[in-house]
Fold each of these.
Amino acid sequence: MTDRNSSPQDDALRQKISGLLSGGLETEAWPRAETSEMVNEIVGRLHTDAGDDLEKKLVIGGFTDHPIEADEIEQPCETCMYYLVHRRFCELPEFMLPVEPNWSCRLWRI
Amino acid sequence: MANLLWLQGGACSGNTMSFLNAEEPSACDLVTDFGINVLWQPSLGLELGDDVKAILQKCISGEIQLDIFVFEGTVIDAPNGTGEWNRFCGRPMKEWVKELTAAAQFVVAIGDCATWGGIPATAPNPSDSKGLQFLKREKGGALGANFTSKAGLPVINIPGCPAHPDWVTQILVAVATGRAGDLTLDEFQRPKTFFSSFTQTGCTRNMHFAYKVSSTAFGQRKGCLFYDLGCRGPMTHSPCNRILWNRVSSKTRAGMPCLGCTEPEFPFFDLAPGTVFKTQTVMGVPKDLPEGVDKKGYVKLTAAAKGAAPAWAEEDIFVV
């Protein structure tokens, strides 16, 4: 799927991430970041442990290639505040990754 | 002619500095056009020492009619209820405040510290600070919940950190010109003319709020500051985007989240690490939602609006 705002580089990276997730990369999808303290802790780990390492970002962020439901709310990228609809891109500064609308991560926020 | 006395307790002088920048009307206009006689003010008064004390004593005795008593800063009770940590003219400021408010026709609290305690009253509140008639949301404060001035009004609260200069001068003019009866106050004794609408009212980022596009860094021109950066504009009662600061801007227009400084809880979450400039969430949903909006409605609205967002809403449209 292409999008007028999604660049070839984004598309290639999105495909790579998709391959990692469907290939069984074990990520920390649970526990979800229930409180702001947990959000801060995960963001802190992204800074200190992940940096620019793609796989570590996916693992610590708890990426999945399907939506997760928590607290009776479904948490797909497409409803997340960091998601750019037209570029299909996660704009959370610690991620800055091309994603799909039906993916999810534990830093989801609405 | 209305006599005005302005004193300062536990404060940084920020409201005085703000007041001196007033434009509509200006601090000078108060004197020249609206007949306000400034008996003494900490940054403007010429008298020092015993001469100031004499003015205060004459106000209390009635020798000088005290029409408007303005207080900036907290009333300090520490240590052990004595108020000795804030002495002024030979005695604890809290004692002057008690006697001057009893003598005044009208009492006006300027800024968060004087209204509800503000930053000095943040836990653990080492100076045992209070606002004149509130401590945070709790009514009472230094003067007690039932206090009314001689004119029959409770303390008129003009909060803010600092209060906008024109909120101050416009209310002082209303009181000095006999129109205090036109003022209607809300549950926190704030004049409704300024504090019924929200900081978000008139915010230039409203279209980004509508399409649920978030700012992710300070100073960004695109995006709404509510979703990630802790902006309290949708929950804060103030006219900051109607009566602009320096006539040109506001915090949110400049890319800085509203801190909610006109609300009694300011500073929110007692300034705990990680709470400032970060939207507090519970399982991804903001802890504090726009006033009157429930969680279920918010989630539905947000998901729908996000899906409908046009491409331009995600770009920086403010091209030079």
Amino acid sequence: MSTATVAPPAWALKVEGLGRIYGDPSPESVPGTGPESGTVISPATGAVVAAWDVGFEVAPGEALGIIGESGSGKSTVMRCIAGDEDATTGTINLRGVGDGTVDVRTLDPSARRGLRLHQLSAVYQDPAAGLNLDVTAGGNIADPLTAVGWRHYGRIRERAASLLRRVEVPLDRMDDLVRTFSGGMRQRVQIAKALANDPPVLLLDEPTTGLDASVAAGVLDLLRELLEETGVAAVVVSHDFAVIDLLTRRVLVMQHGRVVESGLTDQLLEDPQHPYSQQLVAAARG
Amino acid sequence: MNDQLTARLAGPPPQPGIFDELSKREIRRAMLSGIAIPGYQVPFGSREMPVARGWGSGGLQATLSLVGEDSRLKVIDQGEDAGVNASNLRRLVVSHVGCEEETDTRHADIIQSRHRIPEQPLRDGQVLVLQVPGAEPLAGIVRDMDEQRRMHAEADYAKMWVRLYEDVVHNGLITAAAGYPVLVEGRYIMTPSPIPRWDVPKLDRSEAITVLSAGREKRIFAVPPHTSVVPLTFEDRPFEVEHTPGAACRLCGSADTYIVQEPAADGRFTTWVCSDTDFCRRRRTGDAPAPAQPVQGETA
């Protein structure tokens, strides 16, 4: 029966056929780009095909990695999902929006921005991209809370404190400007802010790349715990196989805007098939 | 052809003066738009006025567009009808239009003000014109004007609330004094003119029309009668108005009006007087309702 209600999908986030072209968006821009051609620049139109035909599903409680070198299109994919920029083609569905039947790209800009309140959060490499450095740690967390209607000062403080405690930011720093924080601590505040409204989908773009090794290890431990505890569906974008190995079960390898290989993270690390994956793994093994 | 059309639209031939009929009509249109969308800032083509921008040019244009020969006009600076700025603005309009000067709030049709709303509750049929130096409540929060407009359009006011949150964190209370941000009819955040907190509750469900006009920023906005105007505050931080325990007006003895400090002969500020001189005079002559209960410094 066509009118029967469809059960909600098993995935929390589904991306199909996602493409992002800078410049002429016509189909003529695509041939001659990609791994076989060794470039993202269209010989026909000069457009940059930053990502093309990218598709995946992420289930609740699952973390998917996207790995590739700079310029491979992995961050473009993430920004298209987050709504920071609009994809040229493809569909993006969230289970929380119409039980996955709605392509969020068809929403108007206001509704699309609204998804960032309840449906998905992003953590960026640069904390300044996700935080206001001239506001206190608590105030940065108050932002998403007040955006969804919190109007009780005491309860906002309680929620902010519990989130900061969770990401191991000392509570006596709660009322300090984030500008006075170290890089690792800023990143922890950004993670706390991203989790403020318990989003079902979390996007992490190079979350530890700007941090020195020991600090990065601490943030990675925290992220791994959070991913296990919260049941959030996560997409982790990184150029670093160590990060992907620690946080994710499945991984896509991107090169020149295309997915060249995908699979279980540990298998791919043991036995990479695509030459580019083999290069990446070899580089990670040092 | 166009000349004929504009001449017809302009109505009677322009009188010598400071403001033509077409301009008045544009401003009335902006006011009507503002009344239709309470709290929304309507752009308008602010004209040059014989007062500097920032000195009441917006309020003057609104008043000139509203007054007729039979209107009674009251202008106050702070709460005072006799202030230099108030007297000159009032004389300017009266000499231009030929309307009546008025100081008694009850009898005025139009009241132009910047810093105060009269103590006498306004009634149906009156228009309060407030001169607004800074129309945009989000100006100190985001700099990009496109972003300010987007935030208003989507009622995306989280950053305003973060500002209030930060204020409480750093100062223990919301420190905004004059021009306290308010939410109009549950939709737009608006900054009133620099009225004290004391006057903010008077905007809520007022019988009169409030027109706010910023000549320098070229925006007009309005609060129609019976419209909710709620000062922004947290549920557990009640909005409080100014109050000094024990202070009362030296002249009329009122403790339930907005009072300001006045220098004594030795230069020290020890005595208080009503800011609203018209209401103070009426209290002294027994022509005003007697004080009810002494206020507790808290309203909304």
Amino acid sequence: MENKNSLKDIFTGRSGRKIKEVITAYAFIAPATILIFIFGIFPVGFAIYVSLHKWRIKRGDFIHLRNYVNAIGNLAYVVVFFLGIGALIGMYFFVKEILKMARENDEKPWLTIIPGIVFAATTVAFFRWFYSALPEVLGIADKLRGLERTQNVFMQLLREALRSETVLPTWRTFLWLFLASLVVGGVVYRLWRNKRTMTYQSNFALAFLALGAGVGLIYYTFERVGAAYTEAFETGTDPGIWPQFISITAGVILLALAWILWSRAPKRDSKGGFLLHILAAAALLVGAWLLIAEIPTIVASGDKDLWEGLKVTVFFSLGTVPWQLAIGLFLAVLLFQKVPGSNLFRILYFIPYVTPGIASAAVFQQMFSNRQSAPVNMFLSFLGMKPQQWLFEPRGIMTILGDTLSFNVPNWAAGPSLALMVIIIHNIWTYVGYDTVIYLAGLGNISKEMTDSAEVDGANRWQVFRHIIFPLLSPTTYFLSLIAIIGTFKAFNTIWIFRSNLALGTTDTFSISIFIEFFEKLRYGYASALAFILFGIIIFLSFINNKTQGSKVFYG
Amino acid sequence: MAKKEHREKRLKFSTQRNIFTYTILIFGVILSLVPFVWMISTSLMNLGEALGTAFFPSEIHFENYTEAWRRADFTEYFVNSILITIITLVGQLTFSILAAYAFARMEFPGRDLIFSVMLSTMMIPAMVFTIPNFLTVTWLGRISPINWINNWPSLTIPFMGSVFSIFMLKQFFAQVPDELYDAAQMDGAGHFRFLIQVVLPLSKAPLMVILVLSFIGTWNSLAWPMLVTNTPDWRPISVGLMSFVTEAGQEINLTMAGAFITILPILIIYFFTQKQFTESIARSGLKG
């Protein structure tokens, strides 16, 4: 009567249509997802792998954290240690989430701990298999040399690679754990029928993963520090990691404590609040002092080029972002008054942003040429000033300013080099139009009633701007500053064009130094480690930006 | 009486204000356009004049353009760039439209998880990807029957999966009213036909923006093409212009002509699409 087994019937009926929809959806996302996985997610894991090796074109020895230690000195150990601490904090949040859910629904989800552990173990086993298979699969390319590149040969080599004696055991472990997690997950789901079972299971899995990662990273830190000591004792030197480690850790903890105390302290002048403020200030001072005392040693033991690159990048950021935002906001406010032709102005301001940066950089290169007859030097002599070397000038702008005023500027106050200034000007020129357009859109979202009523109350234009428009624009400002700061840390193309050997590396930002390590010095492992350090800095800056500005962002 | 005076004063004040506003706005336009004016005028000078102090050419030398075009081999680089752009765009648009539609309008397990993992990759700086992707592309070239290095696959395939395009299209597709889908379903149309016949014709604006942004991106890319090509065979215009600038050196009338040749296609596209373009940029910015 009813033939439920026919394939056609699976795709009809309500649940059948659902299955069909899910399959269609997966087919829709498959191509993009696969590509993004291969070229956007897998590379992160691959880059970690590369950064832990000595790797010059070809893969060399596994050298643990050596690349990181070479770059940032003993700070590398501290960072890994804090990553472990961060994972433990993450576990705390997962557990808190579980307990909250259990309390709210008045349940005892303890049975789901078992599948949680098995899931976490399966994930670990997967990564273990992945990292053991990676070198074997990469090696296929070498084995194929001289052979015909057909699908059959490749599949055979792939099978060999995946069945080699280092890979097969890890694959088996993963497979068993995977089966176990299916069984255990299913059994627990049967035993404890609840629509939140899966959420509990995955939250427990994440908690155990975080616990494992945290404990693993902290253990690894201590093991590596120990290894560094053993190695140093053989040559009879004292690496001095522990004192550094302790003072940096203490400094960071004190700074975090200061932050927490300060934000917990009540705003009004109560006795307790005063005491908390004093405590916070003390913690801040001691923590900062500890860090400031340690930083020169770290800088001295790390890669000089890297710190130089970091300094250049900070100059580049500070020289561009505030100015670009201020000019953009100013122009947007002027354009927003609905002057006739404001649309035309908007179109024209936006042109530098769409212009290919490489071409506009080539133009700026010639405008800021060191020839006396170049436009900018002409303008300077028109103002009665000396022509400058611009992109060939490694001296800081403060030094040059001091020279013209016959005033000696100490080295630490030299400021960004004149060559970097050209790049800064070009960057501001490029992005002002973009900021203007976004600010204009932000201004358009502010309700007219609010500004009007303030004007009726007798506020002048500046007061309206300062107390109403600017605070209401804070989400836009936050977004633009985040994009701009990250942009300066990622900037590459134009700086590469502007770069000149005569500027003695004063224009080499962090990204440029990474590219040089990779492209010219062919140190792939070290360059990967540097790229991760850059990533860490970007995350840290976004976090700081979020904490300082984000708390003040006012979503009208 | 007093009222009238007040109004006159106000009127006068507002004209003054307008003059002030216009002065600043025009000053801003001058600053943003001076490099273009200087580039074009220098590109029309002879060499002596270009290296001199003149701002405008005394006689116009259009032959600089043909000379720059010939010397820099722009024909080859242009063809390369256009081919790279077309291949990338066809792949990227097809894959992004499909994926964005599924993320916006279909229900499937793991949807939010996959999407948020994708979005999180946008935070990672390109330098982290560059090295492993270079190794991956080299490896793929050594195992597959066609070459990847110095060939189109390495320049196009990695860019076909674009999180930004998926994100932008998803925002737009989600706004298409559900009633339209119900109506289409009544008529017997499935997801695919609904996407092609109803959703896509409604989404011309975001598609245009993705088109233009990808075009600019391909036109602008430098580090990656420098890595994966070492012969001019597949090198795009950006690398071509860079090597021409280094090679022509002090012949700045020619380099400026080359720069203008590179900029022109982008400018033309920008002026044709500027309305949708600035509006979509503004909207995407506000979404943050």
Amino acid sequence: MAHLHLDPKKISHCRELANKISSPVEGLINTHTTVAIERASLRLIGVEGAVQQEKQVVPEVNIIIQDLLHEGVLGRGALKWFVNGMIRTKMTPSELSSQVARRKIKLSALSQAPASEIAQKAHELCKGAVERLIQSREKRDAYRADLKDPFDPTGRNGPLLYVIVATGNIFEDVIQAKAAAQAGADAIAVIRSTAQSLLDYVPHGATTEGFGGTYATQENFRIMRKALDEEGQRLGRYIRLTNYCSGLCMPEIAALGAMERLDFLLNDAMYGILFRDINMKRTLIDQHFSRRIIALSRIVIHTGEDNYLTTADAIENGHQVLASQFINERFALNARMTEDLMGLGHAQEMDPAHPNVFLLEIARAQMTRDIFPSSPIKFMPPTRHKCGDIFYSHLMDAMFNFVGVLTGQTIQLLGMPTEAMHTPLLQDRWMSIKNAKYIFNGARDLGKEITYQPNGVIEKWAEKVLDDTVAHLEMINKKGLFRAIEERAFAEVSRREEGGKGHDGVIRRDQQYLNPFFDLL
Amino acid sequence: MTQKTAQVDLKKLKPYGDIMGDGTLQVCFTIPVEPSPEAREAAIQFCEKMGLDHIKVATMEKAADGFSLFVIYGNLKHTVDFTKIHVVKVDAEKRSREEIDELIKTKIGRKLVVIGACTGYDAHTVGIDAIMNMKGFAGDYGLERYQWIDARNLGAQVLNDELLKRALAEQADAVLVSKVVTQHNIHMRDMKDLMNRARQMGLLEKMVFVAGGPRVTHPLALECGFDAGFGVGTKPSDVASYIVEEFLRRQSQGVSKEQREEAPQRAKSKVRPTRTKSRIAKSGKRQAKSKR
């Protein structure tokens, strides 16, 4: 494989800076919890039900956590109250949650069992939950082994073909996903309904209506997982399932994704802050717990740096992407994830009219590959400069596929000719997959045959981006992450430390805080 | 040798392939049955019903189990009278940033306040950013760059009510709304809702309402109650040109309205601005429907 000659000292300096930038945040993470972490903890031990309230179906975990928050006792941890309730009522988690959510039992009003008894019982329950996650993981390993899944995080086996479905109806999604798998797709993402990330609850049950996508629910996860397992068996290939672990329910989606055996989750340490205006503290605390679950379940995350390039100019802002990748890598390591699980994201979004644009795109793609050699790099297609000319768009996707295979990207989200028009039709996906298969096959070993000209345009561009990244990370380190974000360090977006959605769901941990998942995950 | 190619017949316009009047059309679609001679015949019959002659099936592909995809060529039988076509368009002279700044400076004498957002649950800011952010789009600087425009981009997922309250509080002269997600026509529902609220708050006369997005057209925006709509490929200076011109138009009408109040007998002969607008809105609606 051709490689760039980048200065390893500069790269390790970037990693040191990322470590310094993340360390003040670790203090925050260790002293706080959020409503979403507490809800995820209850979900992991088996609270799954929902209650009809007027026209809305409200998950039991939301009612339970909201009540504890209003009573001002959530700082001790939901498990403390819930497990005490189980001891006192001798009920199973689902029996008790059903009673509490219907306000027939008030957890904080029950007499307290001895702390050691609660701690021991909580530990047992959480251990059981972790064992279920491990079983789920082992089931995936068995499927993969059985089907001789060729996935290799380093990209050695060529880019994986990744497409999205987004009909709004999970049953229609199944038809589209199976069709995509038959055409050659290796991974399917079910795009979420627009703005689900801003809901402070996970919708319940199978859903047939959504806007720009389909709601992420536990039942929808199950339906699609089963469909892809069946299709994979039939086709003799392991088909991966992706969903979106971002927004106000990041830890809960991680829990549900882990339980329902998803393979990929979109999960970024800063995406929610920048692009969804979710409070900084909430996002950073939530991302940590979600990644602890992800680490144990060995799910591959996809980070969201590609979004920086749709908002800000792709030629000018390569360093922001790289700086963010280093920070995402550090936060993932802090959550006990290994490099082979970090699908660091970037995109081919430069202006197609720019002279020698492919040289710059190759430089960016190759340097991402070379700087994170063990990570499954996620490469996102052109969107920003696409319009309704589907023929030109198809050509842009072809060049994107060419850059992807040449530079050894791992997970290639295939572009759609009808980008900027509608969520993909069956035929759009078919065309797109045919395009990728042709190019990935035809240029499979091209990267092994070439070398980059020392001091050529490609090498120089990569060096410039790396230099800019060092400077950018030094600036962030000097200001601190929060202030740097306020001063538009990423994607030209400014966010304040106390601003954004979900800030009221951040709670300081009490000295008696109980959550054995932090030891077990 | 005399040159013998037919001239275009605008009264009987047809699509063009390589011979004037050939009516060549390419179509691509998927039908939910397996590829088979019967599927091919079904595809041909669809094309016949669309008004195609000399139908050639270029390819029939298996797109998935139970789905066949077709690429088909044919010659369209229908014609269109191009001379009778009437399209409702945004009425504004295209000006450069410098010209627009100069116009505001000399004719208005204060900065125009423009508030923009991607409304409802729509999270796609690419459109509003292209129009408003400093950088702009395709070499055309965004509204933030204009010296005489005070541009405030509120970003994504701003609720209609919130946007209007901000617009009122900040005494906006124009409100820009970007809509990208169109599934189940949610963009139209959101746009109509915004304009209903604006009407109730009495903002229609005070502000210029502009909608934009890849699937937004001027007639569609009018149908939803906006003053103008801009679609794919719109540049910031297109929007700014319109806002300034519309502002000046209203300003001059405002003057004539005051004059009317002084001399009501003369006012009768004048077309009232609100009526003009509702007439355009109606014809816009027809246009939008016939396009679908």
